[in-house]
Amino acid sequence: NDGHTATWAFTEIDQSGSIGLNLNGNSWHRPEDTFGIAGVVNGISKDHRDYFAIGGYGFIVGDGKLNYKTENILETYYNAKVNNNIHLSADYQFIVNPAYNADRGPVNVFSVRMHVEF
Question: Which residues is 10 bridged to in the sheet?
């Protein structure tokens, strides 16, 4: 997003930086498994911050008052091959300043995913 127009898809992000690492399971004798960890820092422009601070709403973000801080996310997951047709993943995200608001969070998000092939 250019930081000057309303967002109507995905989420409000004008700047983003990320770093991550994926390791396959060779070292623990599960070569088809994967462990991953990543960190993300998201930000919005001054115009975007000002819009939210006066009560503006975006596609997902906006609650009438914004105490701006960057949104920081740490995510880790493990993807395990159960058999030739099924992979099962567990995922954890720790989100600091969700929706760019220092008055919110932190938030812990846990999820489980299953990938099935026929």
Answer: none
